[in-house]
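Hi X.,

You mentioned you wanted examples for the new student's onboarding notes, showing what a folding record looks like when two proteins sit in one file. Here is a clean example. The first protein comes first, with its sequence line followed by its structure tokens.
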Amino acid sequence: MQKSKNACVAERQEELDKCEARVKELNEIESNKMAKDYPDASAQEKLLWALTRGITGKSVQI
């Protein structure tokens, strides 16, 4: 019983790791899009955009 529980935990952790990697990949894509769309945005604007994106999960207009 304990062995199957550990296997289940390991499987869930693997799924979680895959999801976290995908989120990181999507955030990188979104950041690159922001840099392309707003090449003259200041560092503060980029930081605000990234923080808002991270908190709400939605893009904001600068």
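Then the second protein repeats the pattern, sequence line and then tokens:
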Amino acid sequence: MVFLLENMGYRKFLLTVTDQKEMATCSGLAALDYANTKFSRGYTTTGVSMGVCARHEFIQPNRVGDLQKGEQFANIDYIFTWFLQFHDPTLFMFVSYDIVCVGWIHLMEQLMELPPLVRCFLIMPMICFMIPKLHIKGHSTKCRARFSLNLVPGSGQTDGEGIEWLWLNIGGIAASTRIMGPGARHDTINDHWSHWNWQKLISLAATLRQRLDNAKEQEVIHQEALASFSEQQQERVGGWKAMVHEYEDDLTKKNPYKTVITGLTEAQVRLQFQREEEEAAKKGLPKKHRVTPSKFMTECLGVEEEQREVRVQVELKKSQTTKQQIDLGALRTKLLRRLVRLHKLQATYTPAAIVALEKREVADDERPENEPLYLPSALSEAEHADGGCMSSLLEMELSMRDAQCRSALVKLRNQLVVKARFLNYKALHARHQGATTCVRAIVNHNKVKIRLHSEKYQNTWNTLWVNAGCDESLVAWRKLRKEDIRYMEDEQDLAAKEARWRKAIARQKRKYDELVAHAVEIPAWLNNDSDDDEEIGETRVGKSWREVSWI
């Protein structure tokens, strides 16, 4: 059986394609990291793209095409439309692809640029684009709500990752095919994939029976869990079902799985105050300064944000090289200039802040990132009186603080999702010094973002808490603790880790009892005064593996 598509027409089409920008991705896939590097130079083929039945994992004939420079749009579009010609166009089809979130956006326009041999017109309502279940974990929350196989009826719990087994199976011949000519390489690949399909065919009955037995077992577990959850949320279940059914009938309707953020963003709050100031100007009310109060508060919070960024950079670069010291010096110089401009504005809007700055004792080694700003929320009632602070500034600041909490929490959640993908990719796929160094730099950059967003939320929450009389019940946001800042793990992964932990505890106890029986001295690492499994579990496993963070 021939698996690679007709080569002459494919090669002729690629000659008409200039260098394209490779497909961008929001997940940082391994296939894209190693494309267009020195490891692929000099090869006529750097890989293949393949169409596979995601349900039964059979390789489709004439559905495989060679790649020259990574996953370019031209290659993928040609191969995709080629194998669509062998399917019944009247059947509803699920198409899963690792980076379909960017690949399908301009798909119709790209198909019109293909040669007549493969050009086709897609009936988009008959095609549902999805991302495989493993790869979607590294995508943004927006992609998860739109392209998850778990959320679309008809997917039948297909994971879309069957093609990964094929890559694992064929990887063993890569070193041999690398030095072959085109004909020998194609024959070798066809032979191996024919054997794969034959093995799948003769084992299909046993595989389907095993999956059926597993499905029956899991059905009972999930039905009980669903019934228990529905009983606890009985007053909401009816509305939820209506939203889901409406979305399943028409995917253009509101997505019930998409996280909805209520309230005003930082930009919307600033715009609201700006419009109020414009209305006041139309009424002829005098202005204190050419910089309006809302712009003054925006500048205050901007300086505070810049101080936070410098502090994080200083902490992450404790063992500073000469270049890092120069970079930090430039950041501090820029911050000093902003502080000088801010103090001039404070003399107009918050004179009490200038008085407080003059009274404070300044340490010789104090850095600009540690200088207090004395914003309206930090001033006492006595300092607010007698013109020490413009009357509307405190209310304005608290409104902006509320929006800061909202935006910081959203950004923190997104960065934690990204962190999970980066760490998984670093552990499984990053190889060679250059790639690991690049990934480490990306992980560190992600770490900085998480730190900034979490500190922004914590500092803002503290301000709201103090101005609420130190009463948490009066603050609309929950307090963020260090142990809350963690990414959510998959339930099946958690169950597997729990099982491994239980086995490790059992082995440890058997070893302990054996040493005690033979009167052998117990090693320090094995000696544990507590017999309580849960207490040991808290020490060995940690709470982050056992409960979901509120964020």
